[in-house]
Amino acid sequence: TNIADAIHQALSSPFYLENSEVFISASIGIALNTTNEPSMILKESNGNSATTSFAPTRIDCVLQPEELLRHADIAMYRAKGQGHTHYELYDTAMQRNSAYRLQLETDLRRGIEREEFQVYYQSIVSLETGKITGFEALLRWRHPQRGIVSPGEFIPIAEETGLITPISWWTLREACRQMSIWQKQFPTTQPLTINVNLSCQQFTEPDLIDKIDQILQETELMVGSLKLEITESVVMENPDWVKDVLLQLRQRKIFLCIDDFGTGYSSLSRLHNFPISTLKIDRSFVSRIGALGENLEIVQTIVNLAQTLGMDVVAEGIEVQEQVNPLIELRCQYGQGYLFSKPLDSEAAEGLLKNNK
Fold first, then answer.
1. What is the pTM assigned to this prediction?
2. From the centroid of its chain, how far is CA 313?
3. Terminal CA-to-CA distance of the chain, rounded, Å?
């Protein structure tokens, strides 16, 4: 580990390429060329009888070069998962986890082919009226053996393998198709909206706009009722290129939402340069609101500045009624959370709409 620390220290200084200052980081995996493996050895008793017994012990096993490299590679990927400038020392638990992830990746590919994915819908409501104004589409995986697999478990693997792209496009098409049905079934003065998360990989595709146009045409979703949710990091990492794409979407009356706002490194003063329509306040801030309106400072700042910039605000993760009144007093227009509804399949969500009249 001292060597790994020294490498990170050396890389912390900038490099100069063609008069430009460049910083790099490294994820380091460490594997030892010996490993303690359990074994069984023969022990003879010291007594008069000639009995023998086997007892567990541990011996050092020298690894083959290819096995040593494989262990270092596994540790390196674990380090990458921890973020930049990390190192990890290989242990046998990593091998088991690597095998599990490999199996999950295989199942993920089969899941796409076998249509094991399902879109769930969580309502977004007007805090003043309590009426449903739209839904957020949330992906669920019904694994034939494991049952419901948590998005937190399979989404990172899908992102690493590139499988997130076909999964995300399927989710967008299915969500738009279902919302188009509901818009015809439950006509309202202001059409119901559908929020769909746009992955970073999708956002960087050169034919992004064409694909969205095609889906909207196929599903006949009402103009102005699609809202795409992106993260702060997507906006801030490539601001010039992102702004051009967002403007093209806005021209099509496709609205942009910043998801989990407050957890990234952007600021409202920078976001005003982009055609953002909605900020979704991260649930970590909403959960701290008390019955007497405690811990409202961050929420109040976000709401006030968002309104100054002409953006709507949705408070995520509302779980108790005591959180609603302080949000209304702050003029936060919309809310989402288990207080109103957990994510539901399309049939249950339709029942929710029927009772929302």
1. 0.74
2. 20
3. 63
